Amino acid sequence: MTVSEQSVTENKEEQVSSETTFDNSRFLKQVLEQAKSWLTGILEKRKA
Fold first, then answer.
1. What's the total number of domains in the chain?
2. Half-sphere exposure of 20 (CA within 13 A, CB side)
3. N or C: which end of the chain has fewer CB within 10 A?
4. What does the pLDDT look like over 9-37, one tens digit per residue?
5. What whole-number distance in Å separates Cα of residue 42 and Cα of residue 48?
6. pTM of the full predicted structure?
7. What's the CA gap between 7 and 17, in Å, rounded?
8. Could you list the residue range(s) of the whole structural domain that residue 40 is in?
9. How far is 34 from 27, CA to CA, in rounded Å?
């Protein structure tokens, strides 16, 4: 493997890991939204 080939491979791996991080943060946002609406629902029921 030449030096240029190796750097291309490393760049691809970095791209993949950053995409995974992006997916994880999107997933976390969804979970937080879910938890927020769930908690809001519980509080509304207590008030009622």
1. 1
2. 6
3. C
4. 777 777 777 778 878 889 999 999 999 99
5. 10
6. 0.49
7. 15
8. 1-48
9. 11
Q: What is the pLDDT of residue 1?
A: 61
For the stretch 6-36, what's the b/e string if a residue is b when 16 or more beta carbons lie within 10 angstroms of its beta carbon? Answer: eeeeeeeeeeeeeeeeeeeeeeeeeeeeeee
Question: Can you tell me the distance from the alpha carbon of 11 to that of 20, in angstroms, rounded to the nearest whole number?
Answer: 14
Residue 21 confidence (pLDDT): 80
Q: Residue for token digits 């946002």?
A: 29
Checking if the pLDDT of 7 tops 80, the result is no
Backbone angles phi, psi at 2, to 5 degrees: -80, 170
